[in-house]
Amino acid sequence: MGLTSVIEYFTDIDSVQEFSDAYLSTSNEFIAIFFVKGKDRTSLSMELVFFDDNK
Fold first, then answer.
1. What is the DSSP string of the chain?
2. Model pLDDT for residues 28-46, shown as the tens digit of each residue
3. Are 34 and 44 within 8 A, CB to CB?
4. 54's torsion region: left (phi>0), alpha (psi -120 to 50) or beta?
5. Are 46 and 12 in contact (CB under 8 A)?
6. Which of 1, 5, 23, 27 could form an S-S bond across to 53 if both were Cys, CB 3.0 to 4.6 Å?
7. How do residues 9-35 score in pLDDT, each as one tens digit?
8. Bridge-partner residues for 23, per DSSP?
């Protein structure tokens, strides 16, 4: 469930652009950890809990 949510997020052009604008202004590399909540294999929410620009 968590992996599916993250894949959906990073394959949506609007989400990718929003993420890039917010976090990738100084680096093209990153490490991110997301907390995903769901029920019966359906994602209900996703929260970025850790981000490192790998510098």
1. -HHHHHHHHHHSHHHHHHHHHHH-SS-S--EEEEEEEEETTEEEEEEEEEEE---
2. 899 999 999 988 888 889 9
3. no
4. left
5. no
6. 27
7. 999 999 999 999 999 988 889 999 999
8. none
Straight-line distance from the first to the last Cα atom of the chain, in angstroms, rounded to the nearest whole number: 30
**Residue corresponding to tokens 């950890």:** 33
| Nearest-5° Cα angle at 19, 45 to 13 | 90
Give burial (CB, 10 Å; 0-12/13-18/19+) of 22: exposed
| Contact predicate 43/4, CB 8 Å | yes
Residue 36 and residue 45 in contact, taking contact as beta carbons nearer than 8 Å: yes
24 phi and psi, to 5 degrees? -110, 30
pTM of the predicted protein model:
0.76
